[in-house]
Amino acid sequence: MDQTEPDIAQQFRAIAELRGDVAWIVRADSGLPVYISPGVHTLLGYDMDDFVEHFSSPEPSSPLFALCAGLAARLQRFAQGDLSRKDIRRSFDQPHRDGHLVPIEVVSTILVARNGVANAVVGTIRDVSEQRQRAEQQRRFASMLNHEFRTPLSTIDGAIQRLEVTGAGADEATRSRYRKIQGAVDRLIGMMDNYLSPERMGEAGITRPDDAVAPSALLEEAAVQLRAAGREAIVDIGELPDRLRCQPSGLRLALKVLIDNALTYSPAQRPIHLSAQHADGGIVLRVRDGGDGVPEAELRQIFNKGYRASNAIGAGSGLGLYMARSVIEVHGGNINVQNVPDFGAEFEIWLPAHGGGGKSVASNVSNCDNSAKH
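Request: output the structure for the sequence above.
Response:
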């Protein structure tokens, strides 16, 4: 072989480093690094001597511990015939010498001699900060699109359900148009579930998420949340439909906001009352705490965006009740609060249900989001 030709290991190290990776080689017999790209100093603030020192006596408290964690056990298992970890890929946040975290991906493989014995572990370290940022930007963009499309579609969905409930006497052509509108809304929501909510589709498999739930189940789940927090829940469930057409996760979120408020504002020794029943052509869900209630002068403002009552406890953004109201209203319902003597605040959610006479969808509480000025 031409003595002036670079050795093959040198060639591959150069290829890895051209793309910005940090290439490294660790001997299998000693467990010590014999090569690491100089670029590791730029990436992590350490140099070859630091790695040799750490690999000589790895300490869990060392900032470099994660880079070699499990190496000895991996080689031992390989020697015993376990090939499952011959090639591995790991991603984690590695502390830089100056203390900030660097998201990295470490890819490595075990090299063997002709006798089948491992003689080295080789790999690369890559900075994945940009990939992580792009993934986060894509997630936020998809989430924004999902929200921007889903909110008006949910409004249309609630409105068409409302028309079906109140338009029982409409002619067949009109009712057929209602069904076509409902079908189009369902298809669009299904497309968003497929293309804009990959995490939800991953959880749900190949099927669409539920678009209905048993109202009694919502209240029972809320009671479980209260009891898990060590609080007494008194549940009164009246006659209810078996299924309520809705986005279950949205209603669960709205109820969770009310349950969290009840836990915060009622004394630990007082029970929290949950109830549900048919009312005004729909269903009513109530959460009544045992606290001091909402200041009377603020009842009309409590659902406004960013508003916090004067008796609010702890830090907060004032968005919880606003978010709950938004979810309920896109379902064609409304939410209100009143103070009940000797009990505290009682939050009431009304939602439309088929088979009833109907009720005004507009919230009884005037605020900046449903006033005539906006």
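The chain has a mean pLDDT of 79.
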